[in-house]
Write a structure and sequence with these properties.
The protein is an alpha+beta fold and 221 residues long. The protein has one domain (12-182, 201-216): Jelly Rolls (Sandwich). The protein has 4 helices and 10 strands. The strands form 2 sheets. It has a 7-stranded antiparallel sheet with strand order 7-4-9-3-2-1-10. A 3-stranded antiparallel sheet has the order 6-5-8, with no helix packed on it. The longest helix has 16 residues, at 20-35. It starts with 19 loop residues before the first helix and ends in a 5-residue tail after the last helix.
Length: 221
């Protein structure tokens, strides 16, 4: 991990992934503090350009764009900054390979947590899901979900969120196969003429656009 100076993030303790309540407590503290630390948030965004690992992990995906701000694999977590949601693709219910916590900085969304009716593992379709909890998330909202939970977030166009993920807990994540958006709505390939991709590393130009986007919205200096 490359930073220009040691920060309080460097002394965050390892996260106990066997205890979701502990994960929620520590991750909420980290995200709340980072949301209020404009200097450090600016530094982390700027440093992505000079860190090959974080730049490679900053991606253009089916759902949104993300920057990998901070990586601490030895302590079990990574911090991301998510932005530029694709509203038409947000409707796809999905799970994750890891537990995660998120905090909304700008914008907001309708968040739907769904209950699986076919068990808690493996692929699923829309017919295997029932709504369980529906919430409206606004700036300052935060929540934590385990890797077995299926959810979807219908985001406003200018939503930006901090996102803290834990280590991989299962081999694959899944999305409702029958509700996946058409391939032509996927992100364009980095190389013109190649097929659209569900997820790919951002280019240097796309990194610069994300950084400019954050500056224009007064989230970083």
């Amino acid at each position: 991990m490359l930073t220009s100076e040691v920060s309080w993030l460097d002394v965050v303790p390892p996260i106990d992934m066997d205890n979701l309540r502990t994960f929620e407590r520590i991750s909420r503290m980290v995200l709340d503090r980072l949301a209020g630390d404009r200097k450090l948030l600016t530094q982390l965004v700027n440093d992505v350009l000079h860190d090959p690992d974080r730049l490679a992990a900053s991606r253009i995906t089916l759902l949104l764009n993300r920057l990998s701000l901070y990586q601490a694999p030895d302590r079990g977590f990574e911090i991301r900054l998510n932005m530029n949601p694709r509203p038409d693709n947000q409707r796809v219910p999905h799970d994750h390979c890891y537990a995660f916590a998120t905090r909304i900085l700008t914008g907001g969304y309708v968040h739907v947590v769904r209950r699986r009716t076919d068990g808690w593992t493996g692929p699923f379709t829309g017919a295997d899901l029932e709504p369980a909890i529906v919430t409206v998330e606004r700036p300052g909202s935060a929540y934590t979900l385990g890797d077995s939970i299926v959810h979807q977030a219908v985001m406003e166009p200018h939503t930006v969120t901090l996102f803290l993920r834990g280590p991989r807990r299962k081999r694959l994540s899944h999305a409702a196969e029958d509700l996946m958006p058409l391939r032509e709505s996927w992100p364009a390939a980095a190389i013109p003429g190649d097929a659209p991709e569900e997820s790919r590393p951002c280019t240097l130009t796309e990194y610069q656009r994300m950084r400019t986007y954050l500056i224009e919205r007064d989230l970083i200096g």
